[in-house]
Amino acid sequence: MNNIFFRTIPICINAFNTALDLLFLLKTKQVMNKTVEKVLNEQIIKESSSSQLYLSMASWSENQGYNGTAQFLYKHSDEERVHMLKLVKFINERGGIAKIPAIEKPPINFDSMLKIFESLLAHEIKVTESINNVVDVCLKEKDYTTHNFIQWYVSEQLEEEALARNILDKLKMIGNDKGGLYLFDRDMENAAISTDTVAAEK
Ligand SMILES: [Fe+2]
Ligand SMILES: [Fe+2]
After folding, report:
1. How far away, in angstroms, is 42 Cα from ligand 2 center?
2. Residue 86: CB partners within 8 Å, gap ≥ 6?
3. pLDDT, average across residues 72-90
4. Same domain, yes or no, for 54 and 121?
5. Which domain holds residue 99?
6. Are 64 and 151 within one domain?
7. Using one digit for the tens of pLDDT, what is the confidence trace for 37-49?
């Protein structure tokens, strides 16, 4: 009788320790604020559709013989995918569930270089509004960690809008001048190469 009693003691201690470990794990597992998780998942859709849109613009430019601009836009499309991935990883690491959206079909024809960069700027402005909304939600929900994380996107939007405006100004100056468009395309190729070099040096 005594033997059985003493043999069950270690088993009980083990079970008790396992229960304690489980309780600790449950307590330490982060659970993301649901409202913040929802807006971040909406932002994933926006970054993904930006990537698709710029990919389509790159393909159109390549077919029109604007190879430099195509290179620039292919790169820009890749960057938007990285923006999406950053969000996916952040949500999952913070205890939320990232939702991968269906691929949205972007337009196929863009008429002109000017039209491309007009719609690129309009798109970036909408993305900036959406990022600002995420900032707003983070503050309302007192989620300061996500607020800190999203500041990277705030700076990125500033840069992207400025770049799009700059390119658009040049295109407005060039108008329909074929020689001007040729030089513009060469500049875009150089811009794509120089950002590649900066990325490689980081
Ligand atoms: Fe982006
Ligand atoms: Fe962007």
Report:
1. 15
2. 152
3. 98
4. yes
5. 31-201
6. yes
7. 999 999 999 999 9
